[in-house]
């Protein structure tokens, strides 16, 4: 299984494409530039199986409908943010996009409690990691030692908590309870910036010291 990082949309949000040897893939957080993403998928001859969202802020969902309609695949999101997809006041586009509102059609699969999720040959552990937003999720792929963490944990930083539904204490608890409990060699794929590792953030992240 191989992963690709593709920064997309107005805030260059990291979209991740996780593929297997048959070129089937999962798409995480397609934040914008739908035509560009579609062109890449077609040029690589990938077969997308699903779109999964770490959360529903506008910069993570902008290309959802373009890809979903092109491939007729389901969209997964946590129940706490299912209404955010169609509401610019919740997904933030009303406040940040200067008149360009982001609306996405309803999700096909609603995730609730933490669970294991199998899509084709992909096995994922779905972890609830609220704090940046109330429905934030992280997706751990044990077989490949990676976790798609959205805007929960970054290289040398953590997610902001000053947006609606954010909670700083809850965010720190999510990071320590779930992300930092993973094996230290786990690669963390964040929503913005470069990848890091559990070990690196345990040792060097100044926001996590003294928690």
From TrEMBL:
SUPFAM superfamilies: Metallo-hydrolase/oxidoreductase (SSF56281). Residues 12-192 form the Metallo-beta-lactamase domain. The keyword Transport does not apply. InterPro entries: MBL_Glyoxalase_II, Metallo-B-lactamas, RibonucZ/Hydroxyglut_hydro. Its cofactor is Zn(2+). Keywords: Hydrolase, Metal-binding, Zinc. It holds the Pfam family Lactamase_B. PANTHER family: HYDROXYACYLGLUTATHIONE HYDROLASE GLOC. This is MBL fold metallo-hydrolase. The lineage of its organism: Bacteria, Bacillati, Bacillota, Bacilli, Bacillales.
